[in-house]
Amino acid sequence: MRVYLSLGSNLGDRKRYIREAIWRLHRSGAVVIRVSCLYESEPVGVREPQPAFLNAVAEIEWSQNLLSLLSVTEAVERQMGRGEKGSLGQRVIDIDILWAEGERVTSPRLTVPHPKMWDRAFVLLPLSELVCHLDGINLRDRAKKLSVRQAIRIFEGEWWVEQEGSDLPCQSINIPPATGRGKQSAGN
């Protein structure tokens, strides 16, 4: 099934952590289809001052159920040093399952579509590069409205295209750019 994941980091080498998380997801069975540009945004809903986040959205194919994907994303977060899930503190990596083709889940561990995605410009802008509409909602229009009150900017375009000699782990994954941005619709 096609799944969209949000990835964010606001500690250390943020770009490297997002890249490493994608690589670890790939190594765990996710087929990475496309990845959005990187966006930088101020933390949303936090109580203490924190560094800005880098955010991206990855489109993947997943052959198992969503709870197994949740277990994989949580394992990746733990392996990379993420503390308690649900905390609004600073984090090396945060991975959320946003939406899955043909799936709706409401359980104590997982809700899909992600209940807060519709109110987060840092999710909707990168997601709108990969798909124009989800569940009848125009993602770009919704993101533009939210970005008026949520500071967000494009940080880097084709950031996963590696320089020769790079030691970043994702260089072995051939992730195509999100060309034809926002041309598709899903879940209508």
Mean pLDDT over all positions: 84
Share of residues in strands? 25-35%
- Rounded to the nearest angstrom, the radius of gyration is 15 Å
The share of residues in helices is 25-40%
Which regions have little confidence, pLDDT < 50, spanning 5+ residues? 162-184
Spatial separation of the terminal alpha carbons: 16 Å
Helix and strand pattern: EHEEEHEEEHEEHEE
Count of DSSP-assigned helices: 4
| Beta strands, count | 11
> Which term fits the overall shape?
globular
* Classification by helices and strands: alpha+beta
For the largest beta-sheet, the strand count, sense and barrel status come to:
6 strands, antiparallel
General description of the model:
The protein is α+β, with helices and mostly antiparallel strands and 188 residues long. The chain is built from four helices and eleven strands. Strand 6 (105-106) and strand 7 (111-112) form a beta hairpin. It starts with a strand and ends with a strand.
Task: Characterize this entry briefly.
The chain has 188 residues and is of the alpha+beta class. Helix content is 25%, strand content 26%. Strands 1, 2, 3, 4, 5 and 10 form a 6-stranded antiparallel β-sheet that branches.
